[in-house]
Amino acid sequence: MKTERPPAKSEQLRRHLADLLVGELAPHERLPTERSLAEEFSVSRLTVRRVLDQLEREGRVYRVQGSGTFVSEPRIHKSVELTSFSEDMRSRGLRPGSLEVSSERIPAGADIGYALQISPSSQVLHIRRVRTADDEPMCLEHSYLPAELVPDDLGPELHGSLYEVLSARYGLTLHRAEQTIKATVLDPDDARALGAPPFSPAFLVQRTGFDARGRAIERADSLYRGDRYSYQLTIYRDPQ
Ligand code: GLP
After folding, report:
1. Which helix (H) or strand (E) segment is 176 a member of?
2. What is the DSSP letter of 21?
3. Cα(71)–Cα(55) distance, rounded to whole angstroms?
4. 59-89 pLDDT, tens digit each
5. How many helices (H) does the chain have, and how many strands (E)?
6. What is the pLDDT of residue 78?
7. What is the pLDDT of the chain when averaged over all its residues?
8. Which parts of 68-158 are beta strand (E)?
9. How far is residue 44's CA from residue 217's CA, in Å, rounded to a whole number?
10. Can you give the pTM of this predicted structure?
11. Residue 165 CA, closest ligand 1 atom number
12. Quick check: CB of 133 below 6 Å from ligand 1?
């Protein structure tokens, strides 16, 4: 006769935490400490940490140094994928790049401050980049990051992927974003930067990105050439 073996202790712990995350704890509530979980499930702290690492990779919890592990904001499953410019271009078989990269520290001002949930007088890092695809200008991007979260100037690193730098240097990972897309035309300065005729059509994509803690980490205006860019979404019908 075949007897079912009870699940390993780490699996019991994983299931226990999964139940806590769906049922008992609300977003931003603290999980029990690593030490108390280790005691309760008679496993090592290292085992607890591995289970929490996995949940963190899945975006279901986040950690705050010195304070503990917290429940992430819920993800909306039907939403479209949140990609960086680099990922977006690569998925189209194009090589991403950046030209005319500059950055400066400025006060947020009313609009950016409001989007980033900081005071208008707080400093932000403003990054301007002409984003290229196979070396051709595709998009003019202005990103604003709270200086409190991003204290350095970043400089040459900005020729690569901003999202990768934010994650590697500061552990800041985009979890969700609010985005609007508007039709517009290029003013003469923006048209020059993009190598397109003045007043030609463009898409303005405005994104505010949040991490799993719900902190706004980037506000960006991306102006795409209408003749080169198209918005592509995979959309699903709700079976209900
Ligand atoms: C998209 C977003 C921007 C973001 C950028 C990061 O274009 N609309 O808000 O700054 O991706 O892309 P990358 O990581 O390639 O720099």
Report:
1. strand 176-185
2. I
3. 10
4. 889 999 889 999 987 655 445 678 999 998 9
5. 7, 8
6. 47
7. 89
8. 68-71, 96-107, 123-133, 136-146
9. 35
10. 0.77
11. 14
12. no
Give the containing element (helix H, strand E) for 224: strand 216-225
For residues 26 and 75, what is the distance between their CA atoms, to the nearest angstrom?
Answer: 13
Rg of the Cα trace of the chain? 22
Pocket flag, ligand 1, residue 207 (CB < 6 Å): yes
d(CA 132, CA 98): 6
Low-confidence ranges of the chain (pLDDT < 70): 1-4, 6, 74-80, 235-236, 238-240
pLDDT at 178: 93
Cα distances (angstroms) measured from residue 102 to each of 94, 159, 207: 23, 10, 20
Choosing from 85, 132, 208 the residue with most ligand 1 atoms within 8 A of its CB, the one to mutate for a pocket test is 85
DSSP reduced 3-state for 98: strand
Helix, strand, coil content of the chain in percent (nearest 5): 30, 30, 40
157: amino acid identity, one letter: E
Residues near 213 by beta carbon (within 8 Å), at least 6 away in sequence: 28, 62, 64, 70, 72
Contacts of 64-68 with C-beta under 8 Å, sequence gap 24+, read: 64/213, 67/30, 68/30, 68/31, 68/33
